[in-house]
Amino acid sequence: MDPGAKETKAVLVVAPEPCLPQILQQLEERGWDAEAVPALSQAAEVLRRRRFSVALLVLGTRDAHSPEDFQACVTLAPCCEWVGVFPPGEGARSPWREYILEHFFDHHTYPADLTFLYQSVGHAWGRAALRAQRRDSDAGSADLGMAGQGPAMHRLRAAIRNAAAVDAPVLVTGERGSGKQLAARALHACSTRASGRFVVVNCGALSPMLVRAELFGHDRGAGSPRSGLVEAAEGGTLFLQEIAELPLDAQAALLRVVQDRRMLRLGGHREIEVNTRVVAASHVDLAAAALAGHFRDDLYLRLNVLNLSVPPLRDRKEDIPTLARQAYQRSVARTTTVARGFQSSAIEAMLAHDWPGNVRELFNRVQRAVVMTDKSLIRPEDLGLAGAAAPPPENLEATRIAAEKNAIQASLERVSHNVTLAARDLGVSRMTLYRLMAKHGMNTHSP
């Protein structure tokens, strides 16, 4: 590219057909490379084959875009910044209210001021560029964007760097909520495929009837073929969460992708070459599942060429304070709260907890505490955790001796260590007080 040339900025426009010509013309006059579709279902098709930093959604007064269509777009392009234009009142109703708060950089209401609207699109593009810079910085940083400096995390990061240097399938194992997807993202980010897409597929969420069409696409006879998620990850990484949930017939088709990087669309007759790295994850013991006949052993062997084992949080408790602060900072950035940090007892309670839900549980507990607490410092009870265990009770004699010493000390402090006045205050003779002070190793000159 010519260093003096102006960078082309791509934007996906989803708007009712009568609006499209005007919007496209105005965007192109402002230097945008705009691609337009009239419906969110078609936007998902476009996002399977092309990446956009910004998308403009214009919701018509009679539109019936389904939440599933918009969620599909977000899943396909998680880093895309959305700008929306909504009919009056529509943005305040669910589900669009939640989508605006969670996924939109900015939104406008009819009739929109076009100058401000296109400024929002430009600002969204700038925001997307900053996010991309941060991702690049995190990918190159020493911690790969993964919090924790304990020995378990050092070993995991070293394993990720080793695996990233080899373009082979990877199996990520670990308990639920331990951070398997984060490890897979770090692997992608420091591999030669970092400039390609990182496509996440939750195999457990795919409909058994549609899973092959979703993964491999299908030919529509006389109509245009539809590409699947495997092709969407062309040149990048396909991350398959909960791979054990994939039906056996889909496992057979996936084996061809992993083994030969070739696939066949559903209903198709011609194999397609794909340049996609497969990274799979499971909290299930796939070796045992293969022995039981619930998972193909040949696919397991192909996926397990390289293995990344993500440690549970209970095995890296030294990282809990760092993770808690990270969870707090993310939570306060999204909501208004009076919380300004944690009580020391809250940190102690977190260190004592076994975390069966791992890092995900920690983040959820901290987020709930940030939202619900009415105190400046988060307490164990705000986290739903018991406080640190009290020390075991002392015997009666030890308790009596400690109480006696504390009473003498308090009396001496009240009278500026005047023994005569302290003895009068305690109701004993001066000689008795001297004897008690000697017994407890106390003197008359200092506390």
What does this protein look like?
It is a single chain. This protein is an alpha/beta fold. It folds into four domains: 9-137, Rossmann fold, CATH 3.40.50.2300; 163-310, P-loop containing nucleotide triphosphate hydrolases (Rossmann fold); 314-383, Helicase, Ruva Protein, domain 3; 396-439, Arc Repressor Mutant, subunit A. 45% of the residues lie in helices and 13% in strands. It is built from 18 helices and twelve strands. It has helices at residues 20-29, 40-49, 67-76, 96-103, 114-140, 151-164, 180-189, 211-216, 229-232, 248-260, 286-291, 297-303, 320-332, 344-352, 358-372, 396-414, 419-426, 430-439, and strands at residues 9-14, 32-37, 54-58, 81-86, 104-109, 170-173, 198-202, 237-241, 262-263, 272-273, 277-282, 306-309. It has a five-stranded parallel β-sheet with strand order 2-1-3-4-5. Strands 7-8-11-6-12 form a five-stranded parallel β-sheet. It has a two-stranded antiparallel sheet with strand order 9-10. The longest helix is centred in the N-terminal third of the chain and has 27 residues, at 114-140.
Keywords:
Rossmann fold; 5-stranded parallel sheet; single chain; 18 helices; 4 domains; Helicase, Ruva Protein, domain 3; 447 residues; alpha/beta
- Helical amount among residues, as a percent range? 40-55%
Global outline: elongated
- In DSSP terms, counting alpha (H) and pi (I) runs of 4 or more, how many helices? 18
CATH superfamily of the largest domain: P-loop containing nucleotide triphosphate hydrolases
Largest sheet data: 5 strands, parallel
Q: Structural class from helices and strands?
A: alpha/beta
Counted up, domains total 4
Element string (H = helix, E = strand): EHEHEHEHEHHEHEHHEHEEEHHEHHHHHH
Ends: how far apart? 77 Å
Architecture of the largest domain, according to CATH?
3-Layer(aba) Sandwich
CATH hierarchy class name of the largest domain: Alpha Beta
Strand content: 5-15%
Rg over CA atoms, rounded to whole Å, is 31 Å
